[in-house]
Amino acid sequence: MWRAIRLPVLAGMLFFGMLALPSGAAAAPKPADIDAVVKKAAEFLKTKQGDDGSFAPKLAGPGITALTVAALIKAGVPPTDPVVAKGLKYLETSVKPDGGVYDKGLANYTTCLALVAFSEANKDGKYAKVIENAAKFVKGLQYGEGLESSDVRYGGAGYGKPGGKDRPDLSNTHFMVEALLASGVSKDDPAIKRAITFISRSQNLPGEFNNQPFATKASPDDKGGFIYNPEAKDAAGGLRSAGSMTYAGLKSFLYAGLGKDDPRVKAAVDWIARHYTLAENPGMGTAGLYYYYHLFAKAMDAIGQDRFTDAKGVKHDWRQELFDELKKNQKADGSWANDNKAFLETQPELATAFAVLSLGYCSAGK
Question: Which of 6, 113, 320, 361 lies 20 to 30 Å (CA to CA) from residue 32?
Fold first, then answer.
């Protein structure tokens, strides 16, 4: 058929838009280009790794080490690489008798990150028991036992602070969902189902899945987006949706098996279409920008479209755009760092780990 079309006719059809390009024609960075950026970042991280294999342990215990290990493996660095192997060894020494992977705090956050790292490296079953125990530990931190399902905290997860001085939030809950699913927990597991209940109540979408007052007050611009804490005191206009939290909520829905026709998913995608950007974390400016990038990458990948059309009808080759943004902001030494002090992203080890993790989703077909 293609050979039967004369070249001038074919060229004219392409020019006037009569012949659609194949869906795989969306722009994406070349693997070699991604590898070059990752290699530069890995060289930087090598200079920041402690003798024990850790990265910035005073900042978040084993958390940044786990994030870095998972990021490097996702970006194509093998578990046998010296930096990754040393990081995994350090994580092993951080495993507690209760199955958690933490230091003095942030038990849910750091254990979830470690679960993903161990799962990425568990090709030969080496970490199977560690993964099983860590998943059990994380489930034990979830709000559910002793609560009515109508309680806004039901299904959520917090940082896992000792003494019960905690409260659930969407950030910790999305990390929990991703970690449990990565560890092999079924989408039908009660812990996942409970988490989706909490996440649904964190969305500015009143109705069957969210009866919280803030959702009914949401502006049209906030509708469909997500907030950090559904227990927060809402103002007269409700609670503002944030980009990072909206990508976190959407990612969790899709990972947990909600269909693209689900009203919660559709509303989240609509919000993203109205606020698509890589210049900032919508609703938060540059605060948590690299955290935002990694959630953007995961959610966009889960949507399953190489091109994303925003509310103005502009088509975005999001993999290429994300790669271009990250490459542009990589420093000469291979690192990234945020000028905004919020959420500790001025710490290059943290921002670099998030950036490398984001790069792991920039290859076409991933």
Answer: 113
Average pLDDT for 76-97: 96
Three-state DSSP at 147 gives: coil
- Identify whether the C-beta of residue 244 lies closer than 8 Å to the C-beta of residue 194: no
Q: d(Cα 172, Cα 112) in Å, to the nearest integer?
A: 9
- Find, among 321, 218, 309, the residue nearest to 272 by Cα: 309
> What is the average per-residue pLDDT within 297-316?
97
Sequence-ordered alpha helix ranges (H) in 276-347: 289-303, 318-329
- C-alpha–C-alpha distance, residues 246 and 135, integer Å: 25
Residues 316/307, Cβ–Cβ less than 8 Å: yes
**Separation between Cα atoms, residue 250 and residue 47, nearest integer Å:** 36
Q: What is the CATH number of domain 25-50+57-359?
A: 1.50.10.20
Amino acid making up residue 205 = L
Cβ burial 81-97 (10 Å sphere, 16+ → b, else e): bebbebbbebbbebbee
Which region holds residue 288: left if phi is over 0, alpha if psi is between -120 and 50, else beta? Answer: left
Lowest mean pLDDT among 9-18, 22-31, 52-61, 163-172: 9-18
pLDDT in tens, 259-296: 999 999 999 999 999 999 999 999 999 999 999 999 99
Which amino acid type is present at position 3?
R
Q: Where are the domains of the chain?
A: 25-50+57-359
